[in-house]
Write a structure and sequence with these properties.
Layout lengths: L3 E10 L11 E10 L4 H11 L18 E9 L2
Antiparallel strand pairs: 1-2, 2-3
Length: about 80
């Protein structure tokens, strides 16, 4: 992407109950977003796409194919 900003986003995934045999992991994504996306646009997009909560406007510049994951990592949280 020619005009883009890179954001770092980490998400904690964990089980609701320790006795379920699940582990907690941390996922970090490095994402290119449009340069003109405001911090609110990005926050709304992250909430909807990765937090599965809240909402965003239909004209949010991060919607659709406007973003690109450029790097990702994950690790177990101890």
């Amino acid at each position: 992407m020619a005009d883009s900003r890179v954001i770092m986003f980490s998400r904690f995934i964990s089980s609701a109950c320790e006795n379920t045999g699940m582990k907690t992991i941390v996922i970090t994504l490095e994402i290119d977003v449009p340069e003109y996306a405001t911090d609110k646009d990005i926050s709304d997009w992250v909430d909807v796409e990765y937090g599965q909560c809240n909402g965003m406007k239909l004209d949010n510049p991060c919607r659709g194919g406007a973003t690109e994951i450029v790097n990702h990592t994950w690790k177990f949280e101890s």
